[in-house]
Specification:
This protein is α/β, with parallel strands linked by helices. It is built from 11 helices and 12 strands.
């Protein structure tokens, strides 16, 4: 019975991961902070903060696998990203047993030019790499199906309500490679319980890139209604943010949209036969 320690277990992906771990008869311990797991799950919980390693040290030292899913994704302050995403990861790494296998949920936009969030995740990745532990880093693209009304799901909700697709562009339209929360969770569990290689980075994304125009055409084709594209220049958003005009998103989210990202699925496909579901199937289900 594999002993697994999970952070971020109360998130949509985290709950799916824990459910699958239980199905595989793992001994699961989850760190809980502001949110709690649903009642009735056969899971041990440790109340604490990722920034307070003494609160979870004993449980982590006993674990064979660490699934680090916790992270801060929306903030107006670089320090909050650094504290939770970078320093929190370092604290966790510091109390792992030297034989533990560390699985880190990062992001496809982890890049020096991806904004504060992306930089904090990149630094966390670097901490994992230099830890001396066996590890796997998972970099998902835009995640849909979390029921959190954000990102791709929020874009689709807006389109259904107003029949308008927002097209963020800087020179060219922003592209997306959406991946489902369920697929990410399933892949995390596979990597955690059936590691094929150590010290590997896996990118998870759709095989096909999608633009706002592509989404508009798919909605129109399936619903037989006319949808409209609303161009939103990134440069205009940057000016508005500099003027401190209130916006419905965080400052660094613009950088995440336009930063260069990898679409290389080869490692995930080779090691685990990863074959992402077509995004248009979700569009039809979402409707």
């Amino acid at each position: 019975m594999t002993r697994v320690f999970v952070t971020g277990g109360s998130s949509a992906i985290g709950q799916c991961v824990i459910s699958r771990l239980i199905a595989f008869r793992c001994n699961v311990t989850a760190l809980t902070h502001l949110q709690f797991l649903p009642a009735g799950l056969p899971v041990k919980t440790v109340a604490g903060s990722i920034l307070e390693p003494e609160s979870y040290k004993a449980a982590v030292r006993d674990a064979e696998v660490i699934l680090h899913l916790a992270g801060l994704s929306h903030s107006d302050k670089q320090k909050q990203y650094d504290d939770v995403n970078t320093e929190g990861t370092r604290f966790l790494l510091g109390v792992c047993a030297p034989t533990a296998f560390f699985v880190y949920l990062s992001t496809r936009c982890a890049h020096p030019d991806g904004g504060e969030y992306a930089v904090s995740k990149l630094r966390a990745e670097q901490a994992v790499v230099s830890s001396g532990l066996r590890y796997a880093i998972i970099r998902p693209a835009e995640i849909y199906g979390t029921k959190a009304s954000e990102g791709i799901d929020r874009m689709l909700q807006f389109a259904l309500r107003y029949r308008v697709i927002l097209d963020f562009h800087k020179h060219v339209s922003t592209t997306y490679a959406p991946i489902s929360a369920q697929e990410v969770a399933e892949f995390l569990v596979k990597v955690a319980l059936q590691p094929v290689r150590d010290k590997t980075v896996y990118t998870l994304c759709a095989e096909r890139l999608w633009t706002a125009n592509d989404i508009c055409h798919e909605l129109a084709r399936f619903r037989r209604l006319k949808y409209f594209i609303l161009p939103i220049p990134i440069r205009l958003l940057e000016v508005l943010l500099k003027m401190r005009i209130p916006m419905p998103f965080k400052r660094d989210q613009i950088a995440r949209l336009i930063v260069s990202k990898s679409n290389d699925l080869s490692a995930a496909r080779k090691d685990y036969g990863f074959n992402p579901k077509p995004f248009n199937e979700y569009i039809h289900t979402f409707l």
